[in-house]
Amino acid sequence: MGLKKPPDGGWGWVIVVASFFTQFLCYGSPLAVGVLYLQWLDLFREGKGKTAWVGSLANGVGLILSPICSLCVSSFGARPVTIFSGFMVAGGLMISAYAPNIYFLFFSYGVVVGLGCGLLYTAAVTITCQYFDKRRGLALGLVSTGSSVGLFIYAALQLELLELYGLDGCLLIVGALALNILPCGTLMRPLNFSNPSPPEKEPAQYSICIEKEKSLEENISILEKGYSEEKFVRPLPMSASKQETPLPEKESATVQSKETDAYKKKVVEQKTFCKHLAKRKWQLCQNYWAETVSLFKNRIFSALFIAILLFDIGGFPPLLLMEDVARSANVKDEEFVVPLISIIGVMTAIGKVLLGVLADVKFINTTYLYVATLILTSVTLCAIPFAKSYISLAILSGLIGFFTGNWSIFPYVTTKIVGIEKLTHAYGILMLFAGVGNSLGPPIVGSFYDATQSYDLAFFFSAFCVLLGGLILLLAAIPWENMCHRDSTKTAPRPYIYQPASQI
Length: 504
What we know:
Layout: H1 11-31, H2 33-44, H3 48-64, H4 66-76, H5 78-96, H6 102-131, H7 136-178, H8 181-186, H9 204-233, H10 238-243, H11 246-296, H12 299-315, H13 317-328, H14 340-359, H15 366-383, H16 390-404, H17 410-418, H18 423-452, H19 456-477, H20 480-489
């Protein structure tokens, strides 16, 4: 008997609500960090590229360290990791209020908050998948919208808190709100385990521990046996030992030789165990590396890897820099009806739902749909330098948010390319490099501004990156081999032979 069958409802919907609010509370401030970005620029007087590292680290560290996050959740469970991560996110936000310089923010806001968000995302996805099977897609879709709703609300909330309490008060209040992750974590009740699983299904690490315990028990029994024999020999009377001295010496020598043999046997067993353990770990590393190499031998997967890296380098910076773009375009504060970041957030949620619905349509190829979102994103990025009013920037922000909702179909694309059996391995690799793109994108775009004092060249560069990734994926996804094979299988037309009319 293994895990209890996923209930696909019941307490699972409580898990969905709790996971939704964990995403809402932890990702709200990091995704809406563009509001705080302007304050840090004015406070620390650093370059835009260097200041952008704070928000990029907060959104990229969790993805880069996703393998470690998965290991923590699998080792300790979703509930303890969620509660611990709640303290991390809240603590990181609160101590960021007392940051003396930008470098302190790299650690407090970038690393601490970013790692806490990564752990919370992994825990929420894991516990949701455990409770749902048939409705897993719906449940994960509802959970993923938590970050988009958080972006929409936190952008306006942080603007209001900045006006009322300043930067320090805003970070302290947002950190206090993040403490609500703790009660959400307590609701993540793990599924009950039934009887222990049969030996053939036990994990490798568990069997190794059992073998180790058995070997230790054997060593202890050998030592106890030697000790009992030695104890049996020593309490001879003094008179007998004086009369027959050779016998005790012979028996003591025998006991010493047995102790020596037992010790040697114990050393040999320990060496053998260590060799087997090292060999097994090395074999696991080799298998992981072989599976990784086999994934990259897949032409479409390699193209998808390049596309997601370039998309995050070029497509993520508007989420962080859009407010500063509006200020650089001399858009007045009175014209801001809704923060641009809030528009991106609500349109991202809509995009996730609608693109997910389109991905379920049978005659739509999800890979081509994903490529279409990349190409349209690049066109939108090219239009940003020409937008000089709030209305135009709001429309472009909404389009970018909608196309960024392609994250909901990204697992579909990965599954179609590598298969469901390799999804976990492939998705982990792709998320790792997506985190690298998130971390590098805003500083690169900010560096363009520092060098040219304009965002025009920066967004042209972003558009080029996204377009290049989309075209590479499109060229790799087109079945060139099938087209060539189809042409070769066509019957060649019969040649026309001229014959004079007299011969007909």
